[in-house]
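Hey, can you fold this one?
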Amino acid sequence: MNINASLITMPAAEQQATAARKQFNMGDNRSRQYDQLVTTIHAAVLEPAKWEGLLHRIADSIGATAGGFYLRNKQTREPVRWHLFGHSDQAIRAYNECYLAIDPWAEIINRTPVGVWVAEHQYFDERFVANNEFFQRYMLPHGLRRMIGARVFDDGRNEALIAFQRGLDGEVFDQETSVFLERLSPHIELACRLSTEFARLSMQAAVARQALDRLVAPMWVVNAEGRVIFANRAAEEGGLNGISIKNGRVLAVGPGMSAKLATLLLQATDAPAQSGALALESAEGDRLTVLVAPLPADSPLVADGRRPLALLMAHNPAGNEEQPLDVLAALYGLSPAECRLAALILEGCTPTEAATRLSVQVSTVRTQLKSMFWKTATHRQTELVKLLSGALLLKV
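Sure. Predicted structure:
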């Protein structure tokens, strides 16, 4: 689309805006509006529903009658979130279906740096408006004439645009208004960035929690002291005999077992982090296995990404619950016998101890280990233990 005809030159418009920025000095009333808007912008970070109210407050401060916020995926151009006011349903539908593709103002906005507000009169004179299809068939028939807007956010994946409009009798958005909005832009950009990140993390955490809740095996996310940060439904509703929660901390039942668990937690949250396992016996005589693995810092279950956390998964090998090692068969093609051996390896058994527990020859165990090394692209038992412990996280 060629929009050069009857267009005010961009350098001239930018020079006018630069001069206005240098001269602009907010008065007391404008300063109060600015402070109130900044407070509202920050509140919208944690409460997305407040974005619409924020748009209304900005519009009131600049005398706009309509406006919109549009967060979209840059690659697909699909909307992620949007808020509109002052537009009829018919106008919104017509714009999306027919006029978005020929909007000359959007073309200007798309190539303008983030945070720079532009008004249509800076680029389109009356002659252009009189001969432009977008203005003649969309803007004017829907009672709109003046507009100002900006790209307020761009993180490479998503970008956000905000625009405000005035009616047919509305005055142009002057340079003072542009500069006022540009002073708000850094706050709006930060709010968009934080809102986008919070939404992404919230979605990841929700998916992870739902997956964990579907597991029959109890699972806890704890810090280095064993204090529970998160527990899945199985852990909250029953847990396992042999594991107890006291004062918000996970403890192992049995002489010296809590001390051993504490050591594994320190190893899992120290640098370099190490995985491990603990074999317990409940009061009923059931053997329990507690797997302890470092939780990656970028896991959606890590709220702040700064503190090292560990994942604890407890299961009863003699029970009927779903075995967490089932995932290894799917991920690495381990046979049932290799999965049983993997469980013992994660408990810390040597090949000789594993052979005794499985009632097979040590040579059989070593052959199975070689097969597991090949399937998992590892070379030593310590590497295999680390990989298998980490693989359990992939079921999340």
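The longest strand covers residues 146-154. Let me know if you want another pass with a different chain boundary.
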